[in-house]
Amino acid sequence: MRMDCPGCLTAQWTRWKVQFPNSDWTTFDMARALSPLPVSLDPTSHLPLHVQLREALRRAILDRRLPRGARLPASRVLAADLACARGTVVLALEQLVAEGYLTARPGSSTRVAATLPDDSMPAADRSEGASPARMPALSRWGTSLTQTPRLRYTAGSTAPDAFALGRPAPDAFPYPVWARLLQAEWRQGPAERPDPRGSLALRSAITTYLAQVRGVACAAEDVIVTAGIRQSLRLLAELLLDPGESALVEEPGFPGIAQALASAGLRPVPIPIGPGGLSASRAATLAPGARLAVVTPAHHYPLGHTMSLENRLDLLAWADAVAGWIVEDDYDGAYRYAGRPLAPLRALDRAGRVIYVGSFSKLLLPALGLSYLVLPRGLVAPVNQALSEIGPTPPGIGQWALARFIEDGHLAGHLRRTRRLYALRQAALVEAAAGLAADVIAVVPMEGGMHLIARPGPAWAASLSDADAAAALGRAGISAVALSAYHAGVPEPGLLLGYAAVPERAIASAVRRMAETLRQTR
Predict the structure, then answer these.
(1) How many C-beta atoms lie closer than 10 Å to residue 22's C-beta?
(2) What is the CA radius of gyration of the chain?
(3) Could you give the C-alpha distances from 203 to 227, 399, 435, in angstroms and in order?
(4) Peptide bond into 392 cis (omega under 30)
(5) Of 399, 359, 353, which Cα lies nearest the Cα of 377?
(6) What's the CA gap between 255 and 250, in Å, rounded?
(7) Burial group, residue 126, by CB count within 10 angstroms (0-12, 13-18, 19+)
(8) Does the pLDDT at position 151 exceed 70?
(9) How far apart are CA 72 and CA 140, in angstroms?
(10) What pLDDT is attached to residue 117?
């Protein structure tokens, strides 16, 4: 095996993980085990050896050959590998620590810093001789898409990222149980022709789960498994309404909903919401011809309001009067920390006008990529016909395992555990914000959900927009999303902070780093 080839090293590390599956690979350090580093010194060069080593390590860090957080070999080991004095290595490492490329603590190892000095430099200053990318000519839709405020998510990350949105707690998921169920699914073999509606086993399990946990009565034929709410919305919009018709969306609200409706040819009409949620009478005034509404009644996204009973009944009466439809996005309605979870709007529907949408990606794992629709009985046949014509079919592998996961009670147990866990993490975030960052942010608890809103505090710079604040926090290793990105009209400043995936022990230090960044940002 070539020790100077990062690809070879990674391949060998992967082979070792397969060969020794019971080892603790979460704390395994490839840089230490596969020493020496991809660094060499030239004794004949005019540059001192410690300068050569310093620059070689800096370049390896910037080229990602040494990833952030990677542990370096001990100075004695590195000196022996490079055939130089230990003092040469120590001097190079101390200079890199002083410059912020490495971190070192007494009695601990030296590691690559999580946040590098170059992160705060403009991209143009970091690129040496790179030719600028030519902007391609885009369609009107493509141009509008690129101009939409970008929400920062880190779905592909596996490390605890404070405070990324839409991420459940990876440390709470029962991976051994899930692995066992996936192995059982593979042993029996996947279906040759996946059902475009989703597997019958999973749809039946969903009906049981909804009846027991959310109070929604339905049959397996009413359930459609999908790849996400955007796919579901586009399918429903094209099936139920004609291009150019209006659809009601919440203001503020998740921009992806309006984008999905617009891509289907509809005209999204933002309806400002109050503490009681969306008002049907206000919506009728602003969009008198609308026949579709997309709402989050259990826990409004992102403000966290709960739709009042009066507004729920008015919205149901509106849909019945105009022969319209309500899409109820119950993305995290199961997470409520004060009393029992509220009954969905679907449970009040007697006219068959509510289409219920749920997601397993936010409850369990983002990688699942599985959501579902519960249709009114009158829509079952048209939606099935549309699915058979246009698809696409959701991922087939994992549906049987998820069905068993629900049937065996693992989902119910997971929800009980994570409700307690998320309540503790929310309380820890509120306490840390009050004790460490009250001058720059104000955070109040919510009765449910997986995120909180940080409003500007008295020491927040008047000229600092929430978008600029989110960008500055991103450079400091803190994931936050600007609240203004969710507004179609006059923006309301603030930062959305997801806490579900952040261990309690990491919250205080992350809030401290957030406060320091906001105090320094102008």
Answers:
(1) 5
(2) 26
(3) 14, 9, 47
(4) yes
(5) 353
(6) 10
(7) exposed
(8) no
(9) 50
(10) 67
Provide the 10 A C-beta neighbour count for residue 131.
6
Domains recognised in the chain with CATH numbers? 6-126 (1.10.10.10), 154-171+414-520 (3.90.1150.10), 191-396 (3.40.640.10)
| Residue 117 near residue 101, CB atoms below 8 Å | yes
Cα–Cα–Cα angle for 292, 297, 299, nearest 5°? Answer: 135
Compute the CA torsion angle 381, 385, 386, 387 (nearest 10 deg): 100
Rounded CA separation 460/66 (Å): 36
Tens-digit pLDDT profile for residues 286-318: 999 999 999 999 999 999 999 999 999 999 999
Integer Cα distance of 180 and 183 in angstroms = 5
Distance CA 491, CA 105 (A): 44
List own/partner pairs for 378-381 with CB under 8 A and 24 or more apart: 378/352, 379/355, 380/221, 380/222
Task: Answer whether residue 23 shows pLDDT above 50.
Answer: no
CA 522 to CA 513: how far, in whole Å? 16
Identify the three-state secondary structure at position 334: coil
Interatomic CA distance for residues 289 and 247, integer angstroms = 9
Residue 170 CB-density burial (10 A; 0-12 exposed, 13-18 middle, 19+ buried)? middle
SS3 content of the chain, % helix, strand, coil (to 5): 45, 10, 45
Helices 75-82 and 86-99 cross at an angle (nearest 10°) of 120
- What is the bridge-based pairing of β-strands 354-359 and 110-112? unpaired
Strand partners, 110: 104
Q: What is the DSSP letter of 171?
A: G
Q: Which of 450, 163, 492 shows the shortest CA–CA distance to 296?
A: 450
Task: Provide the token pair at 218.
Answer: 């339905």
Chain length of the chain: 522
Count CB-CB contacts under 10 A for residue 318. 21
DSSP letter string, 112-149? E-SS-GGGGS-HHHH-SSPPPPPPPP--HHHHHHHTSP
Residue 392 DSSP label: P
